[in-house]
Design a protein that fits this description.
mainly alpha; elongated
Length: about 120
């Protein structure tokens, strides 16, 4: 997380923006890459995997909370650059969905939950 925040701060300085630019996103990308690497090496303990799954589930609410603190009105009235950046991110994200969906081999579906797992939920 700290590395991602530093990368976001540095990117903000390089772009001339007085803000952290994508620090949480960079942190999540690094987390995904690191966990994948550890899984492939067989060095990723089950409790750690469960912790990463928890924080992966928390990512969207955290980003929504962070976005809600932004001054949207000022961004829109500040000029077309904010709108172009938002539309650019939207188009790039939409264009990358099929690309990301093709990564890896198709996997078997998860088995049904056991009675113990159902009770734990």
């Amino acid at each position: 997380m700290l590395t991602g925040m530093v990368v976001g701060e540095v990117l903000g300085v390089l772009l001339g923006v007085d803000a952290n630019v994508g620090g949480v996103g960079f942190a999540m990308i690094m987390l995904i890459v690191a966990t994948d690497w550890l899984r492939r090496k067989g060095k990723f303990p089950k409790p750690s995997e469960e912790g990463v799954l928890f924080w992966s589930a928390m990512y969207i609410p955290i980003v929504v909370a962070m976005a809600s603190t932004q001054n949207v009105f000022k961004a829109i009235t500040g000029g077309p650059m904010a709108l172009l950046a938002g539309l650019g991110a939207l188009v790039a994200g939409a264009a990358l969905v099929p690309v990301v969906a093709r990564i890896g081999e198709p996997a078997e579906p998860l088995p049904p939950l056991t009675e113990d797992e159902k009770q734990a939920v």
